[in-house]
Amino acid sequence: MTGAGGWIVGLLSAAVAVAHVVICALALGVLPGNRKPSTAMAWLILILAVPFLGFVAFLFFGSTSVGRTRRAWQRDVNARVLDAVATRAPADGPSPGEHDGRDAPVGATAAEVDGLARLNCHLSALPMVEGNEVEVLPDYLGSIEAMRVAVAGAQRFVHVEFYIAAWDEVTDGFFTELVAAAARGVEVRLLFDHLGTRAVPGYKDFLTRLEGTGVAWAPMLPIGLRKGQVRRPDLRNHRKVVVVDGHVGFIGSQNLIEPGYDDEGNHRRGLTYVELVVRLSGPVVRQLAVVFATDWVAETGEELAHTLGETAAEPGSARRPETVAGVACQVVPSGPGFVTENNLRLFNSMLYSARASVSVTSPYFVPDETLLYAMTTAAQRGVHVELFVSAVADQFMVFHAQRSYYQALLEAGVRIWLYPEPYVLHAKFFTVDDALAVVGSSNMDYRSFALNYECVVLASSPELVTRLRVVQDDYRRLSTELTAEEWSRRGWRAAYVDNLMRLTAALQ
């Protein structure tokens, strides 16, 4: 090509080359700022390899922030929460109802339990409180029925928050009770993640059924350019919380949907999700109410201060025989509204405090460097560490990223148990010694630490740990142990895919 056309092509080529150099130079100086080295390196590799595509991907997915306004609002909410719950932080000494470290269970000193409580209160403003009752609900249908029964007895308000919600044959009874509660004058509010729930077949029908029922509802983290709702598109509110009258609460891994997740592909494969939920009563329920209230006001602007009063005893019922009484509990919210990765700091602290045993159940175990070191260090200093994961994949990229860590875990002495097909072990909890337990919505992966709004409850109770170990014993009985010898025989193609997906896991 000659003449003007050749000159234009040459100019465009030079411009592209200059832009290439500028993008790469900026990436080298900008990406490492306020990011973990592994995350920054993953983005750098992508941008240096394919500068323009990598740059566009970074614009959409490079930031975990929900915006200065929302983060400032979260800090303000934390300050107001301290006043709303009428308590002081543990650093100022225990207030009435707070955990003071006395009667700490075997395997955890008073100082260690108090240290965890101080950490969590410093990060999320909620203290550890005594005098709670906890019931473990490992049965999928049983937990939905327990929530339905609680809603049927509601007199003042019902607050429901789930990542995925669907009105199907399994959840119909629960939603029917929500509608009935609203009809008798109970304040009923429902939050669901905008994208998580939107992906379920029948989403529009779901919204249509909610209209006119008296149930107030709102999607969480919606994206709408016309409304100025612009953020990284894959940020999620992954919490699963139910609060009834401030007396009864539920938290765990389970979504509000049938156990195949209304997914045709899952049904063809026969995949069924295995979950774990805990039913709570006592002062800690007030903290779940606070978490819901902060999410509700963020999405609707409606304040719910009238639902955050002192938690009275559960009315009209004696202690349920399945419950564990006298449990010290603390709710720990986390997510992009916080900059401190509250759940990751708690998990690491618990792992380093372990003396005899650690048992982790996480469907998506993709640790950052700190969590991997905490886990392997515990095993290397003689703690019995075990990890329960699924043998079958329901998410290709995460499943293979998770597998890339198995060799390091096995070499450190961590025992890995593979829960059999066609089940997806989706429960999220772990125990430390005979002392501590965490149950909630948080996985142990990059997404749950930085991108998802999560919520867990920390509990200090030997009896509760015993109840959870019964569930873990059942998992172990059904599972197959992955040995180092077996893992070493996997093919190079599988190893290549695992390592490639490990790189993508850090692209935050």
From TrEMBL:
Q: Which Pfam families match?
A: PLDc_2 (PF13091), PLDc_N (PF13396)
Cross-referenced InterPro entries, in alphabetical order? Answer: Cardiolipin_synthase, CLS_N, PLD-like_dom, PLipase_D/transphosphatidylase
Q: Which domain of life is it from?
A: Bacteria
Sequence intervals crossing the membrane:
6-28, 40-61
Enzyme nomenclature, EC number: 2.7.8.-
Chief location: membrane
User: Which parts form a coiled-coil structure per UniProt?
Assistant: none
Keywords in UniProt for this one?
Cell membrane, Lipid biosynthesis, Lipid metabolism, Membrane, Phospholipid biosynthesis, Phospholipid metabolism, Repeat, Transferase, Transmembrane, Transmembrane helix
- Domain (PLD phosphodiesterase) ranges: 233-260, 421-448
- What is the membrane topology listed in the Swiss-Prot or TrEMBL record? Multi-pass membrane protein
Cellular compartments annotated? Cell membrane
The EC class name is transferase
Q: What is this protein called?
A: Cardiolipin synthase
- Originating species: Nocardioides renjunii
Instruction: State which gene encodes it.
Output: cls
